[in-house]
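quick q for whoever's on today - can somebody do inverse folding on this one?? i tried earlier but teh output was garbage lol. C-alpha cells:
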C-alpha cells in the first residue's frame, strides 16, 4: 500500500479508540502526532511496522463493546463532553496535584532532586492548560457550534475576527504539542511513573495521579485534534 493511501494513526484512533492501547504500548503518540501513518511512526522509532499494523487490524476486526463512537456525535455534543469531562478534569486534578508536588519537593527533594523539575513542569502545564481551555471555551468552541447550527438551519455566518477557523485550530494544536512534550519529560523523570523504593504513600499516589492525568490528556487531545478540528475545517469549507 502506498504511504499516501494509508490512514493516519489519528484516523485509526478516531475510528476505534481501542487502537490507542496498541499505540501507547509502543510509545507512539496518537494525539499530538496523530497525523503520521503507522509506517512513518514505526520507522521513526525503529519498530516493526507489520506487527503494529497486525495488532491494530485485529482490534478493528473484533466487535467493540461499550465503546463510544465519538465520530457519530454532533459537534455541539462533543464539545460539551470535552468541556464537562476533560476540561473539568484538568481543573480538578491540577488543584490536587500541585499541593501534592509541593509537599513531595519539600520532604523528598533532597534525596530525589528530579522532583523539583517534575514540579516545575507540571505547574507550567496546569497554568498553560488553564489559559488554553479558556481560549477554546470562549473563542473556538462557540464558533464551531455557530457553524454547526448555521448548517442545520440553512443560515449564513459572518466571517470571524480570526479569519478562518484554521488559525485558532493551528494555535490549539501547537499548544497541545507543547503539553504533550512536557509530559514526555515528566514520564522520563518519573521512570514512567514508578515510585522509588523509599516512596511514601503520598509519593505513590502523586505518581499514579500524574500517570492518570497524562492518559486523560491524551484522550482529550485526541478528541480535538483527530475528530473535532478536522470536522470544523470541513464545516467551514461549506460556507466558502
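ok took a stab at it. sequence:
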Amino acid at each position: 500500500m502506498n504511504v499516501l493511501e494509508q490512514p493516519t494513526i489519528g484516523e485509526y484512533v478516531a475510528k476505534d479508540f481501542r487502537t490507542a492501547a496498541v499505540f501507547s504500548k509502543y510509545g507512539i503518540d496518537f494525539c499530538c502526532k496523530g497525523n503520521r501513518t503507522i509506517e512513518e511512526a514505526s520507522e521513526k522509532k525503529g519498530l516493526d511496522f507489520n506487527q503494529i499494523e497486525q495488532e491494530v487490524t485485529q482490534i478493528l476486526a473484533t466487535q467493540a463493546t461499550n465503546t463510544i463512537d465519538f465520530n457519530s456525535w454532533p459537534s455541539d455534543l462533543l464539545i460539551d463532553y470535552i468541556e464537562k469531562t476533560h476540561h473539568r478534569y484538568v481543573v480538578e486534578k491540577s488543584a490536587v496535584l500541585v499541593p501534592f508536588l509541593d509537599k513531595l519537593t519539600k520532604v523528598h527533594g533532597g534525596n530525589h532532586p528530579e522532583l523539583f523539575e517534575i514540579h516545575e513542569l507540571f505547574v507550567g502545564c496546569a497554568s498553560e492548560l488553564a489559559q488554553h481551555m479558556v481560549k477554546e471555551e470562549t473563542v473556538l468552541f462557540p464558533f464551531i457550534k455557530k457553524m454547526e447550527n448555521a448548517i442545520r438551519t440553512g443560515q449564513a455566518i459572518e466571517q470571524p475576527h480570526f479569519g478562518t477557523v484554521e488559525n485558532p485550530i493551528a494555535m490549539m494544536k501547537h499548544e497541545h504539542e507543547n503539553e504533550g512534550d512536557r509530559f514526555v519529560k515528566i514520564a522520563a523523570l518519573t521512570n514512567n511513573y514508578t515510585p522509588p523504593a523509599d516512596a511514601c504513600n503520598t509519593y505513590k499516589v502523586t505518581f499514579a495521579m500524574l500517570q492518570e492525568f497524562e492518559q486523560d490528556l491524551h484522550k482529550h487531545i485526541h478528541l480535538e485534534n483527530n475528530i473535532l478540528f478536522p470536522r470544523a475545517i470541513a464545516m467551514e469549507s461549506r460556507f466558502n
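fwiw The mean pLDDT is 91. also The helical segments are 9-15, 20-25, 38-45, 49-61, 75-108, 114-153, 166-189, 201-237. so keep that in mind when u check it
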